[in-house]
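Sat 14:20. Reprocessing the chain from the morning session after the first attempt stalled halfway. Input below, unchanged.
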Amino acid sequence: METLIEEIVDKLHHLPEPAVRQVLDLVECLTERGNLAANSAHGAPVTEEPLLSVAGILSGQPWSSQEIEADLYGE
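Finished this time. Tokens:
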């Protein structure tokens, strides 16, 4: 595995910066996907949307759509 990593690093040195940034984005995406899979394997809920992971844990009474609009738009 170490040889493979060294080969990748060597090739990265020959790429222009925008391409290196794309590689970094890809690695981060793959890492996140791996983290999601690991969490799923351990029984943690898998969600692509971060806000969905906290949905329903806020305290207080739920608001109706009319109350939300009144608060947002002052109607």
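The two ends are 62 Å apart (CA to CA).
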